[in-house]
Amino acid sequence: MPRYPESAQTAVTLADVRRAASVIRDSVMVTVCNESRTLGEICGCRLFLKFENLQFTATFKERGALNRLQALSPEERKRGVIAMSAGNHAQGVAYHAKRLGIPATIVMPIGTPMVKIENTRRHGAEVIITGQTLEECFTFVRSHAAEHGLILVHPYDDPLIIAGQGTIGLEMLEAVPELDILVIPIGGGGLISGIATAAKALKPSIQVIGVQAQLYPSMYNAVRGEQLPMRGDTLAEGIAVKAPGQITTKIVRELVDDVVLVSEDQIERAVAMLISIEKTVVEGAGAAGLAAVLAAPERFVGRNVGLVLTGGNIDTRLIASVLTRELAREGRLTQLALDIVDRPGQLAAVSILLAEAGANIIEVSHQRTFSDLPAKATLLELVIETRDRAHLEDVLARLGAAGFVVRET
């Protein structure tokens, strides 16, 4: 188990986190940390969820942002602040800067979800969209800040930001002292650094496990000495960081017990389960902790596990896509292709068979021209709804027994 070393204490201490808690107390919600009995039964452990997606801006990032803004001098407040963010830090900075009367400029990468851009503008910040990644944004931020005399509010590599995020750890252990393991998403590392600082000081026996998206394993690479590639569009864009912070990497190396990776399928499944079971909307990054537990339940069996639902800022269109894809994985929504003879009554025969099997037809189309079937044949494409995978297998068996050549597509 990592020890609490002097170097980590120098960067951020438990006293810093407690000080941050007093600074933000009247302006940031102490969110609930409730046990999910259903998810716990699925995972084989006691699972406690910290609902940071219920903050006013639907993200934990308010904590660090406010702690940093409150430390500005009157002269710095007058000059204004600048931040780069894929969305949640932007909203936290914009919202509290407006409350405090501080001008704010937010630089966001191309491809940031529209809901995060619009929410940031709604809080009164000037939004600049540039760069493909946070790292490219940072290059612009430095030059723009120097040109206009703005104060940088870094999204993660700042002791005040880290201390602010660490207040979540204080609240979780106060609410559930018996926690054995905390599973925390990692982007730049500010959240896990703050939580690990507080949790390890309060309860040295507790384990802290970090989670990254498989497509962006930056902290995983840093602490394990790996060189896994970083690329592509991840559902967890909030933790899609190519280079973690220097301060945060040091703290993670010293205080975090392990860093694991989760796939896009696993993240999607976690988002869908939180909606269907907990009735709560969580973005991809916020569901990463649950994804890690679902991916390796044997690691957490019988333990008291704490997860942070870090944010709920996800486009409704994306939610619909995630839920539909999960239905397909569960065998509840399936696209079929059938080779049928092109004559009257064939579609009716298929429809009757599906109805008798209890399947629901969602979409149907004929393809006579663009296929490699004989001229007297046609391709029938169907999207059907079934109860589960077993029901789907029964439907496929009935179609086959009736002489139809059918395949899932």
TrEMBL record:
- Cite the InterPro entries for this sequence: ACT-like_dom_sf, ACT_dom, ACT_ThrD-II-like, Ser/Thr_Dehydratase, Thr_deHydtase_catblc, TrpB-like_PALP, TrpB-like_PALP_sf
Query: Catalyzes what?
Result: L-serine = pyruvate + NH4(+)
Short name of one Pfam family for this protein?
A: ACT
| UniProt GO MF annotations | L-serine ammonia-lyase activity; pyridoxal phosphate binding; threonine deaminase activity
- Domain ACT per the UniProt entry, residue ranges: 335-409
Q: Which UniProt keywords apply?
A: Lyase, Pyridoxal phosphate
Please list the cofactors this protein needs: pyridoxal 5'-phosphate
Q: Has keyword Lyase?
A: yes
UniProt-listed CDD domains = ACT_ThrD-II-like, Thr-dehyd
Q: Name one GO biological process term.
A: isoleucine biosynthetic process
Under the heading PANTHER family, the entry gives: L-THREONINE DEHYDRATASE CATABOLIC TDCB (PTHR48078:SF6), THREONINE DEHYDRATASE, MITOCHONDRIAL-RELATED (PTHR48078)
Similarity field: Belongs to the serine/threonine dehydratase family.
Q: What is this protein called?
A: Threonine dehydratase
